[in-house]
# Entry
Amino acid sequence: MSQPESNKPDKNGNFFNKNPLITFAIFSVAMIVLFKAFVGDESDLAGKINGQNVTRVQEITYADLKRLIENKEVEKVSIGQTMIRAIGNDGTGKVAYTTRIVGPDSTLIPLLDKQKINYNGFSETNWFTEMFGWLFPFLIIIAIWMFFAGRMQKSMGGGILGMGNSKKLVNSEKPKTKFDDVAGVQEAKEEVLEIVDFLRYPDRYVELGAKIPKGVLLVGSPGTGKTLLAKAVAGEAEVPFFSVSGSSFIEMFVGVGAARVRDLFEQAKKDAPSIIFIDEIDAIGKSRAAGGVMGGNDEREQTLNQLLAEMDGFGTDTPIIILAATNRPEILDPALLRPGRFDRQVLVDKPDFQGRIDILNVHVKGVKTDADIDIDEIARLTAGLAGADLANIINEAALLAGRKSQKTVRQADLREAVERAIAGLSKKSRRIDEKEKKIVAYHESGHALLAETTKGAKKVSKVSIVPRGLAALGYTLNTPEENKYLMQRHELIAEIDVLLGGRAAEEVFIGEISTGAANDLERTTDILKAMVQMYGMSDVAGLMVLERQRSSFLGGGMSQAKEYSERMSEEMDQFIKSSLNDRYAAVKERLEEYRDAIEKIVELLYAKENISGDQVREIIEAYEKENGIETKLEPRKVLGSPKPEATISE
Ligand code: ADP
Ligand code: ZN
# Structure
């Protein structure tokens, strides 16, 4: 969503890059002038013609010319393909008569012979006009090609004539953006806060011997405000902001991207402390293992290598911080994520309900509105949308109001703008409607309740019904309280219960199941299969191993050769199926037992869209007290959440 940035022609930019049409127009004028100079026209004949000094040129008719010949009033005639010139004398000096040839005239030559007038032929074209005739079509084709290539390149941030000249590709500015302009991404803001401090007072850190981080990866869907956040960091720290887009590196010519990276870092170092922002870093940082697309693998690899070299090239005492944005961190080359490079990730999530209110308020400030507009309603209508979508909605509403010649934006305009925005949205940035939101809220609450009330389950740190990426409409983040290398049997069963909680909640509370549990079911099946095949945790196979350990824990996939009997296989299937049924029944029972607690969690989740594990626990605790149920909540061992090993139930 930060595309327009790269389109701005830089002041250093080559003029000819800006508009190939202008280039072409100038070129054409030059050609015509040149053409004129070389060829001239008939009125330019005054001067020397056929070695004779002529004082004037006169155009006459063909009949007149013949009369002149008959009267022997001309002394020399030159015949071209379309023109005849004759030199005569009118008493004041020599005159060049010119006329157009009229048809094939077989009497002219005999007449000249008869009158004994000297004649010759001449060529009306010369080497230049001949060549021009040949070249002109090519020139047109080249001009057209330049026009389109220029347009194509411009959209990538460069111009065909300016390749290798990275100066206009690197946008440099001192943004005025502040953290207040970025709303709804509180956690991300807190995480980048220290970067501002590094940039503002680098000496403090350097003197202490602290290593200033180099690269931070901003991860989030398009339009969630990654560029905005990066600019705000520069704005708050009051340092220059150099930005490029990863896709602009992928040029037609190998080596250009690498040169650009070199230039980018050179400029940033000159102005340090500074921020380098690389948008769409996945365009260059795609894992080398993943096959190349058009544009050439070579080019991307060279660019990536140059980037890595540059990042390693300056010390941790140079206050340059490289922020990079991506939507797909999982496809990035692992080399990029190594310590000393982009070793920090900051999640820039889509906003929840309150977040949307905050973002809408930031943008509403810029337009004149009715006093009684209801931002809450608009936030409620836009679940699932990103910040950029919300900014668009406000602008669209202002346009609508303008079209109706209103003085202010009314609530009705905002509502209409929401409808328009949603109709125009791709699947990627979809709005969640009320019905789906309800299903997702029950589903996630089911996961959360089971996680909190099951012994040995990973505890809830966050429950969300803000869609993440393409697939997940909501998620529950479960974090173990200590780092674990072993899992006991009951812990595996607990994990199955938590995973089944989502679907069970849909069945118990909504009365109908949806497709939302596919991922959960896949994982429960994998766990049970591993219990039978690898961990000797079932009666089916006893201690017998049916499947060799693979590198991935509980990993799915097919084994190369089956090492057990058909009967064993059938029994295993039976075991998995009946275990799942047993667990599912138990999970449903638990949900029934905590019915009202679930309703409360759903209510809160539905309103806020993001809730914390503590909020879930509070509700459960209150419910247990009220109903005299012995608490199933386990005492918390650590506060805060260690990140590794967190699992996400979608
Ligand atoms: P990204 O880089 O994540 O694709 P941008 O930062 O380019 O998204 O966002 C585009 C525009 O959308 C911003 O310029 C801003 O107007 C608006 N926007 C996006 N996220 C936010 C936010 N969290 N707060 C305020 N405005 C936002
Ligand atoms: Zn689920």
